[in-house]
Amino acid sequence: MSAAQAPTADGQAQGPAVRPPRHEVDPVLTIEDLSVEYRAETTVRAVDHVSLTLGRGEVLGLAGESGCGKSTLAYGVNRLLKPPAVVTGGAVRFHSREGHVVDTSVLDGDDLRLFRWEKISMVFQGAMNSLNPVKKIRDQLGDVFATHRPSMTRRERVLRSGDLLERVGVDRNRLLAYPHELSGGMRQRVMIAMAMALDPQVMIMDEPTTALDVVVQREILQEISRLRAELGFAVVFITHDLPLLLEISDRIAVMRAGRIVEEAPAMTLYTRPQHDYTKTLLSSFPSLTGAHGDFVRSGSADLADSGGER
């Protein structure tokens, strides 16, 4: 009997066994019933009892309109929220490849500082705003190593920083440049290099291709896919651009008004969306081959014609 076949109670083979999803077998990050409020004159619940699991090496897309709570969720996972934002419930647990489970809510001080970037890193919205405009790229990448790898010499930091730039497709000579001397795509690549510096197991990318033209977007997406395959980190990819997520993600969670309204493998969500809001998001993007609003129908036909490949 083939190893791919599952036996019945009487020992007879009944066909290929169904492999459980990666995030169930080997999770790297679990979010359990997380809630976040902004407490001002009026209290706003930005994240409302959200539960998600990220598999090791998986790309989980998080889609939704502006203001639905996507970035607040990302900041909550990485303990980056500041007042008036308050985590009011739930838990975030990191499952290390070494077998340890870390409850991020109990981390504080140096433990929290060391956890960030080394275990979970983040690529923030707006690379130009994330980079220090008066410091050279060399110094900004070097700061990561100076903080987290204090035993490294200055020469080692520079060499490692140059290697990181080349890994994301930027010439190491750009270490001597200031952020304003780089194009938008290069600045975004620098941010990705910085997020990769300490070999994290999870990378959260918050709108990493916003404000970039479509050609540069394509290059960035290809770079992310290549690096993920090469290094094995998991990705939470946040954007309002659902078609973009369909291309890069293994699974997609759709968020609306602070809640996850639908979660499914990318192909399933693409061809058989269940929630009305997901259908609305899909239909809001025009098809390249049909009329406005035909995204789902033409997309399904294109998949059928291509044998189901994206």
From TrEMBL:
Residues 29-282 form the ABC transporter domain. One of its GO terms (molecular function) is ATP binding. CDD domains: ABC_NikE_OppD_transporters. It holds the Pfam family ABC_tran. Keywords: ATP-binding, Nucleotide-binding. It comes from the Bacteria. InterPro entries: AAA+_ATPase, ABC_transporter-like_ATP-bd, ABC_transporter-like_CS, P-loop_NTPase. Residues 1-25 are annotated as: Disordered. This is ABC transporter ATP-binding protein. It comes from Isoptericola luteus.
